Amino acid sequence: MAYSVKEMFYSLQGEGHHSGRPSIFCRFAGCNLWNGKEASREQSVCSFCDTDFIGTDGQNGGKFRTEQALVEAIEALWPEQAEHKYVVFTGGEPALQLTNELIIALQKRGFECAVESNGTLPLPSQLDWVCISPKGSAEITVTECDELKLVFPQEAAMPERFTDIKARYRYLSPLNDWQQSTLIFNSNTQATIDYCLAHPQWRLTLQSHKILHID
Fold it and tell me: Where does substrate bind (predicted)?
């Protein structure tokens, strides 16, 4: 199978349960909730996306014709001789391209494999960590995950809607202006804090990579 990758880079995980963990991020091109074009943003299911996932022209991006080619490109980004290899597949929507074959090939190289998905499509069974982040009114098909991370508030995706999802951890991330490259404290941040305090099964997570100005 061929893979279209927008970008790949080595950095720290900025949010959620693995916040601060050194990780390789593999961002697949394409999404099923928005085409990535500004002209259609307001009409899309996910209108607040702050990510460019169109094409394959980003850092270390490209078309990879085989699992082996992509595995080698990912492994080349990990520090030489370093252990605890960790790769996060994201997008767009990674479930459009991610396969068990790719995951198994990376696991054979010592990688833990995680995904950040909107939860609308089936995910490969071999993943080591599953984070889903529902968006708007989109129907969720993934009903069990390690981490449920919800942008808050969303009128059509409030926390009460997802009580049936089995998740080890539940996080709320304050909705930020998609045009802001820096995380700012606003009314959504305060509302998220207040909700977590009133519903302690949820935990606050912030986009620390924006606070720290790292990729």
Answer: 12-14, 27, 90
Q: Is 90 known as a binding-site position?
A: yes
Residue in 116, 145, 152, 192 annotated catalytic? 116
CATH topology of domain 3-212: TIM Barrel (3.20.20)
31 assigned to active site: yes
User: Is 143 an active-site residue?
Assistant: no
pTM over 0.90: yes
Active site residue 128: no
- Is residue 152 among the annotated active site residues? no
Tell whether 62 is in a known binding site. Answer: no
Asked if residue 159 has a cis previous peptide bond (ω within 30° of 0), the answer is no
Domain ranges of the chain: 3-212
What is the amino acid identity at position 32? N
Is 56 among the annotated ligand-binding positions? no
Residue 188 sits at φ, ψ, to 5 deg, of: -65, -35
**209 is known as an active-site residue:** yes
